[in-house]
Design brief:
The complex is a heterodimer. Chain A is of the alpha+beta class. Chain A is built from 10 helices and 14 strands. Chain A has 3 domains: 5-49, Uridine Diphospho-n-acetylenolpyruvylglucosamine Reductase, domain 2, CATH 3.30.43; 58-161, 2-Layer Sandwich (Uridine Diphospho-n-acetylenolpyruvylglucosamine Reductase, domain 3), CATH 3.30.465; 165-258, Enolase-like, domain 1, CATH 3.30.390.50. Chain A is globular, with a radius of gyration of 18 Å. The mean pLDDT of chain A is 97. Among the domains of chain B are: 16-22 and 485-631, Aldehyde oxidase/xanthine dehydrogenase, molybdopterin binding domain (Aldehyde Oxidoreductase, domain 4); 425-465 and 636-789, Aldehyde Oxidoreductase, domain 4 (2-Layer Sandwich), CATH 3.30.365. Chain B has 19 helices and 28 strands. In chain B, helix 9 (375-393) runs parallel beside helix 18 (746-765), helix 14 packs parallel to helix 15 and helix 15 packs across helix 16 (603-611). The longest helix of chain B is centred in the C-terminal third of the chain and has 28 residues, at 551-578. The chains are: A alpha+beta, B alpha+beta. Bound molecules: flavin-adenine dinucleotide. Flavin-adenine dinucleotide (FAD) is lined by residues 25-33, 50, 70, 93-95, 98, 101-103, 105-107, 109-110, 112, 115-117, 154-155, 177-178 of chain A.
Chain lengths: 260, 789
């Protein structure tokens, strides 16, 4: 690690002020950022810890919308249970240490192309709430590690419309246990959304052909014959682009079959 | 036998109390007054010419005490290979110098070319970043086949990337060729034994102190064999006299082979401690462990098995390329040769064996012995090709093996690969395996799996290995530059408790529990009154450390011999005390008595007498009760086993799960069955890891893609099934006093082919004509194989 200063604001306003310094960076649960610092791959002058910002923590549900504070840990989401598919997803992120520290805001800000929460947010049609604005998930995830967040912008909450049925299927990359391919399927009155993580060089994305088929007939069989192109999918030592394309179909079918 | 603690008792490991309560003392836990930190500058390219290194900015950084480069070690020796291998044409292997710090060239990613000593680790890291190294990158030599064809070299001075071209047994070559040519059936298989990163839980750490007053050095280091490390540093690298260098390997958190070897970092901290006059510590981070610990395996092999029309084996012939990486690590030349080729007859009466091994330099981390060391490679080749042959000739794989097994009445058996097996009963192992694995129920389990949409497979394997790596006379003939005996000193203290100083080093094996069981059994006393001392060259006799499942078979035998000497002397003292002749003294349950009388003295009373020798026959007996023995066995020991496992394959994703794993081993006599079971468990985990998970991948530029736990898959508990481990079928080793054979590596040797055989069986049961998949059988590889079948 390189040396840095740390600030511990108690409110979003204080945090925003602290982040106005160009070389300051927000620190959520630290489960991505701290390993990066340890490897000397980043050198912020100042870390602004969001852990003490009470207004960014907690989960509430009203009018079919689940609002999860940006500083809420994976463990707390796992324990909540009011949006089952989301809680199950959170319960399968990392290990107990990661879940007890890592936050939804950190995960969605980081937008790792293999992370789980981006699939839930995009698949659910969630809204990302920041200190400045509300951003629809469809507009938020820009590409691998790229989002619509501006400099110093903080995710204060994520709002999930709770669907009729949903499920997340993760085929793990066996070392990191992030998603080699993960598929989040959500069925709402307006139709079906399918979000795919782990597979694409473009990061999390929707599979529109599957959405169309499933909106007509929400059954695994509706996906028979539908395939995903391997173009622009990730290829690495854990799997080729073709393999990932295949897994997208398999995991989508499984998610549909398991949706509840 | 002493209650709960003698030979055969499943005593709990006493050392676990400190390991599990965080009170162990590992190198990095130790801190010295005035200690400084060493950090290395490591190459980021796989192959490059060092044009210049400017350390001036680094030297001026805060807290920096010294900066070293390869220039500083030009005058000292290289780190040698411990085994001389001659090529088939009689020429000796190529042995390029392995310097303390790279000089002239860097040869793999992670190769250290400079080191900074500073007050703190962070200061040293900052200074390393300030070193200006002009390194001109050259094309990397990564793939072995390309390396052999290349016209540029890892070591320019030898003008080839081939270290040696070894034939075993060269005189058998023509007969083997002829047997294959004339055979009824020949099965051929090309396979890869995948490279593994050892991943000991504790990364390497070395801390040196130098005492100007008497010109003495102390090196605390993560070593499996402190005397060997001292010998290498003294005799080859730095030339520090052995009597001026103490090497201490305290608690060591796993080695699996990777901590047998001497590494340049050890020499660097010693030289630095002298230069700056303060203790110097270096602790590897996990990335350094991935990049610089000696890796394991990495063979590419073509094997042929010739059979007659009845399924009798006529010959095995193999051609192997063995990667030795960028430099020769200490055992790197022995591992693919004598620890591999000599086992290529397996458990079989096959009359002809010929093994050809080409060792290849590449711009990758050095490769050396890793749990099993050469023997897993042998077993894997044999047991895979046998399975393939069984399928090709339509014979049950167990029947084919049984048909060719050496039978119990054939021992001692001279194998076609040059070893003399002393004992075994492979059919009995197979019988027991079939029983405890409930083979009869397999078809029902297969149906149940199929109902869930999964393919179920059964895989089997029979292995033999050579353990107790020792006989100095034999290994000397085979090219070893060291002897491989071991040593023990049994010191009976005046108050009757014992300190047993052993040359073996325990870094997870449980010696501190098992060795006292042996001594306690022999003396009939409480094992709790016996402590093992190991790992410190200033305290223990000159032993060769722990690897090759040798500790109990070799060092344990030395303990027995030393304890026998103790008993002899103690009987003399007892005879004097009881006014009898020593021939009449009997030792039972810790009491010496005169045969046929009720006169007796306890072991404790004899001990006290030895140290307070009042009224002592000093003309016949020296005071004190302490004996040392060196033990050099007559032969290797030959553990063997029959393993089987069942797997499920998800045909949609290619994911394999191991549903059961049965290991039936002949370890000879067992001193502590619980420790033995634990050793097998660990080995099975590593073997399953190799078979399914561990994928060490260098890209074409020589970058290690799997250099962290984000990409290198270590087996975790949920990757592994519950094991059935059975060692009821032991046949005592005939030539060591305990009749023990060695159990540390068996699991890692026996399991990989078992798992692969099972996966192939599963795919075949699903109508997929897949005959081989290289390890690790990742979901992607299994799925791809199914697509192409
Ligand atoms: C061993 C391990 C296993 C893991 N497995 C998984 C897995 O299976 N699936 C998965 O999805 N993830 C996994 N993760 C990642 C984990 O979920 C992280 O917690 C998460 O990606 C980052 O969240 P954090 O709160 O720790 O953020 P930090 O590490 O603190 O920060 C990450 C980035 O987000 C920024 N940031 C943090 N909070 C906010 C905010 N509220 N607003 C704006 N920017 C913010 C930071 O500045 C930084 O750039 C794993 C991590 C580890 C270490």
């Amino acid at each position: 690690m390189y040396a840095f200063d740390i600030e511990r604001p108690a409110t979003v306003a204080e945090a925003v002020a602290a982040l106005s310094n160009e070389d300051a960076q927000a620190l959520g649960g630290g489960q991505t950022l701290i390993p990066t610092l340890k490897q000397r791959l980043a050198s912020p002058e100042k870390l602004v810890s969001l852990t003490g910002v009470a207004e960014m923590k907690g989960i509430s549900s009203a009018g079919g919308i689940l609002t999860v504070g940006g500083g809420t840990t994976h463990d707390d989401v796992a324990a909540d249970g009011s949006y089952k598919a989301l809680s199950e997803l959170a319960a399968n992120i990392g290990d107990p240490a990661v879940r007890s520290r890592g936050t939804i805001g950190g995960s969605i800000a980081n937008n790792d192309p293999s992370a789980c929460y981006p699939a839930a947010a995009l698949g659910s049609g969630a809204t990302i709430v920041t200190n400045e604005r509300e951003i629809a998930a469809d507009d938020y995830f820009v590409g691998m590690f790229e989002t619509a967040l501006g400099e110093g912008e903080i995710i204060t909450a994520v709002k999930f419309p709770i669907p009729e049925k949903a499920n997340y299927q993760k085929f793990v990359q066996p070392a990191s246990r992030f998603a080699l391919v993960g598929v989040f399927v959500a069925k709402t009155a307006d139709g079906v959304r399918v979000a795919v993580t782990g597979a694409s060089n473009e990061g999390v994305h929707r599979w529109s052909a599957a959405e169309e088929a499933l909106s007509k007939d929400f059954s695994a069989g509706a996906l028979d014959g539908l395939t995903v192109s391997a173009d622009d999918l990730i290829a690495d030592l854990h799997g080729s682009a073709e393999y990932r394309a295949h897994l997208v179909s398999v995991m989508t079918k499984r998610a549909v079959a398991a949706a509840s | 036998m002493p209650k709960d603690g003698g030979i055969g008792a499943p005593t709990r490991r006493r050392e676990d109390v400190r390991f599990l309560t965080g009170t162990g003392q590992y190198c990095d836990d130790m801190n010295m007054f005035g200690q400084t930190a060493a950090v290395f500058a490591r190459s980021t390219v796989a192959n490059g010419v060092i044009k210049s290194i400017d350390t001036s900015a680094a030297e001026a950084m805060p807290g920096v005490l010294a900066v070293f480069t390869g220039e500083d070690f030009v005058e000292v020796g290289g780190n040698p290979a411990g085994w001389l291998i001659n090529s088939r044409d009689g020429t000796p292997m190529h042995e390029p110098k392995r310097p303390v710090l790279a000089h002239g060239k860097v040869r793999h990613v992670g190769d250290a070319y400079a080191a900074v000593i500073a007050e703190t680790i962070e200061q040293a890291k900052d200074a390393v970043e300030a070193i200006e190294a002009d390194i001109e990158e050259l094309p990397a030599i990564v793939n072995m086949k390309d390396a052999l064809a290349a016209d540029h070299f890892v070591h320019d001075e030898i003008g080839t990337n081939q270290c040696f071209d070894w034939g075993w047994i060269e005189d058998n070559r023509a007969a083997t060729d002829a047997a294959i040519k004339g055979a009824h059936h020949v099965t051929t298989l090309e396979l890869v034994n995948n490279r593994l990163v050892p991943n000991a839980m504790e990364p390497r750490c070395s801390m040196a102190q130098y005492n100007r007053a008497n010109d003495e050095y102390v090196l605390h280091t993560t070593s499996q064999n402190p005397h060997l490390t001292r010998l290498l540093i003294s005799a080859f690298v730095l030339g520090i006299p052995e009597n001026k260098l103490t090497v201490i390997a305290p608690d060591v958190g796993g080695g699996f082979g990777s901590k047998i070897y001497h590494y340049g970092e050890e020499a660097l901290v010693l030289a630095a401690a002298k230069k700056i006059g303060r203790p110097v510590k270096w602790t590897a981070d996990r990335t350094e462990a991935f990049l610089t610990d000696a890796h394991g395996r990495d063979h590419v092999t073509k094997i042929e098995l010739a059979l007659d029309k009845d399924g009798n084996f006529l010959a095995f012939r193999t051609e192997t390329m063995a990667n030795v990486g960028a430099y020769l690590s200490n055992f790197s030349t022995a591992t693919p040769t004598f620890l591999h080729g000599t086992l290529m007859a397996g458990n079989y009466t096959v009359p002809n064996v010929y093994v050809n091994v080409k060792a290849v330099f590449t711009n990758t981390a050095p490769v050396d012995a890793y749990r099993g060391a050469g023997r897993p490679e042998a077993t894997f080749s044999l047991e895979r090709v046998i399975d393939k042959a069984a399928r090709e000739i339509g014979m049950d794989p167990i029947e084919l093996r049984r048909k060719n097994f050496i039978k119990p009445d054939q021992y001692p058996f001279a194998s076609a690969a040059g070893l003399e097996y002393d004992s075994g009963n492979y059919d009995a192992l197979m019988d027991q395996m079939e029983k405890v694995a409930d083979m009869a129920g397999f078809e029902a389990r297969r149906k149940a799996s199929e109902k869930k949409g999964k393919l179920r497979g059964f895989g089997v394997n029979a292995y033999i290995e050579a353990c107790g790596i020792a006989p100095s006379n034999l290994v000397g003939v085979l090219g070893s530059r060291v002897g491989l005996y071991d040593a023990a000193t049994v010191r009976v203290n005046a108050t009757g408790n014992l300190s047993v100083m052993v040359g073996a080093h325990s870094h997870g094996q449980g010696h501190e529990t098992a060795f006292p069981q042996v001594v306690a059994e022999m003396l009939g006393i409480d094992p709790q009154s016996i402590d093992i001392v190991h790992g410190d060259t200033s305290k223990i006799p000159f032993g060769m450390g722990t690897y090759g499942s040798r500790s109990l078979a070799v060092c344990g035998s030395a303990v027995v011999r030393a304890t026998e000497k103790i008993i002899n002397k103690a009987k003399k003292i007892a005879a004097h005390m009881l006014e009898a002749s020593d021939g009449d003294i009997e030792l039972k349950d810790g009491v010496f008595s005169v045969a046929g009388t009720d006169k007796s003295v306890t072991f404790g009373e004899v001990a006290l007498k030895a140290y307070i020798p009042h009224e002592f026959p000093l003309e016949d007996i020296e005071p004190g009760l302490e004996e040392t023995a060196f033990y050099d066995p007559a032969n290797f020991t030959y553990p063997s086993g029959a393993y089987c496992c069942e797997v499920e394959v998800d045909p949609d994703t290619g994911k394999v799960t191991v549903e059961s794993m049965t290991a039936v081993d002949d370890f000879g006599n067992v001193i502590n069955p619980m420790i033995v079971t634990g050793q097998v468990h660990g080995g099975l985990g590593q073997g399953i890891g190799q078979a399914l998970l561990e994928n060490t991948t260098y890209d074409e530029n020589g970058q290690l893609l799997s250099a962290s736990y984000m990409d290198y898959v270590m087996p975790r508990a949920d990757d592994l099934p519950f094991y059935t481990v059975d060692h009821s079928q032991g046949n005592a080793c005939t030539h060591n006093p305990l009749g023990v054979k060695g159990c540390g590596e068996a699991g890692a040797i026996g399991s990989p082919p078992t798992v692969v055989n099972a996966v192939i069986d599963a795919l075949q049961s699903g109508g997929k004509n897949v005959t081989h998949i290289d390890m690790p059988m990742t979901p992607h590889r299994v799925w791809s194989a199914m697509q192409n079948a």
